[in-house]
Amino acid sequence: MGFRERRPTAVAYEDGRAPGGRRTDGGCGAEGADPLGAAEEAGRSPRPRLGRPRLGRLCRTLLAVLVMGAVVVPLSAAARPRIPAPPPAALAPLSVATLTETYAANRANAAEASRMAAAHGARDRAAADRAMASPSRDFLAFDGRGTGRATEVFGDLATAEHIAVLVPGSDTTLDTYGRFRAGALALHRSTGPRTAVIAWLGYDTPRTLGTGALTTTRAEEAAPLLERFIRELRGAVGLLPGVSLLCHSYGTVVCARAAAAVDVQDVVLVGSPGTGVDSASALHTRARVWAARGADDWIAEVPHLRADLFGTTVGFGTDPVSPAYGARVFAAGGGGHSDYFKPGSASLANLSRIVLGATSEVTRA
User: For residue 65, what pLDDT band results from cuts at 50, 70 and 90?
Assistant: First the structure.
């Protein structure tokens, strides 16, 4: 859920019905839903249907296939050859005084990662790492191993009055980092010199076309990492700067898991498939909760269902832009899934207002 895909052909509402009342979830929707209820209420004779035990077994079987895939796919991926890279640099505790030292250590680590990737024949990764080693780049963290992790800063953390932390969705890796960086850079240019923007690729994102993007497993692993980062950031910059958490696509699931434990003033959910909870109040945060979706975002066509099977949650539940969720819904214009940080867009303008604390100027949807 980190890039634009071919649109699904089936459109479903939260109760699993498509326009005209036809169900698109095969009757495996919310607990207690009756796929033939409408016909019975209208006085028509319903079609013969599967007995509830048989239907329940079918639903559980389909969900089991999804969960099995969510386990098997990552294990299969882990068996693929890895591009060699050094372990992360040993860093002093984060503080304003150690920023210069931290940035230099991570640039040196990226340069070594580039050399190792080049020796391995991984030219694309070598080029990506080499770009990150540029003297013009500032990283609070860098890890070139596996799909990679990086935390890049745009602006001056030492003097910033406002800080935005961006949390990406699926398919964001060091190899695809350029598009994530472009969004962070656009936000920084839009918010001006009083703001620092942090692109936090601090977790292993799932694949959009893999079943890992259908479960909360990666989010549950990522949330403690995000919580720790925000805690360390607060310890470094103090309580004065306002911190906003801007979360995209699967990143909204991560932010929902961390929301109760992070000291931020705003949690912003854009292009969300759902967050794994049914309302903003269920996030248990004192922060303002915002949500938006572009008019051309394919994520609108994803059914907002959630089911628990063998301890694994499949699907993410209530749509954050629906009235039932209770978020502050703002205008995102006509953009698609990858357009929320597009320069000149209504979405970027509103995101900038939120980060700057100009909440009264945010245009509502």
Answer: very low
Cα dist from 225 to 8, 173, 233, 246, 269, whole Å: 32, 16, 12, 16, 19
3-state helix, strand, coil in the chain (%, to 5): 40, 15, 45
Is residue 133 within a helix (H) or strand (E), and if so which, with residue range? none
DSSP 48-109: P---HHHHHHHHHHHHHHHHHHHHHHHHHHHTSPPPP-PPPPP-PPP-GGGHHHHHHHHHHH
Region class of 312: left (phi > 0), else alpha (psi between -120 and 50), else beta: beta
For 61, the token pair is: 């079987």
Q: CB under 8 Å to 349, separation ≥6 — which residues?
A: 190, 363
Residue-wise pLDDT for 248-263, tens only, equals 999 999 999 999 999 9
In a domain, 237, yes or no: yes
SS (H, E, C) 167-184: ECCCCCCCCCHHHHHHHH
**Residue 176 in domain:** yes
Terminal Cα-to-Cα distance of the chain (whole angstroms): 23
Other beta carbons less than 10 A from residue 20's beta carbon: 5
Domain of residue 285 covers: 146-361
Strand (E) or helix (H) holding 224: helix 217-237
Band (1; pLDDT cuts 50, 70, 90):
low
| Closest alpha carbon to 237 in 200, 264, 256 | 264
What's the CATH code of the domain at 346? 3.40.50.1820
What is the tally of structural domains in the chain? 1
Listed residue (330, 338, 341) closest to 364, CA to CA: 330
User: In this predicted model, which residue has the larger pLDDT, 13 or 3?
Assistant: 3
* ∠ Cα 117 118 122 (to 5°): 65
pLDDT in tens, 105-120: 999 999 999 999 999 9
Report yes or no: 17 and 24 within 8 Å, Cβ to Cβ.
Answer: yes
Give this prediction's pTM.
Answer: 0.80
- CB of 248 closer than 8 Å to CB of 347: no
Burial of 144 (0-12, 13-18, 19+ CB in 10 A): buried
Write out the two tokens for 270: 């854009």
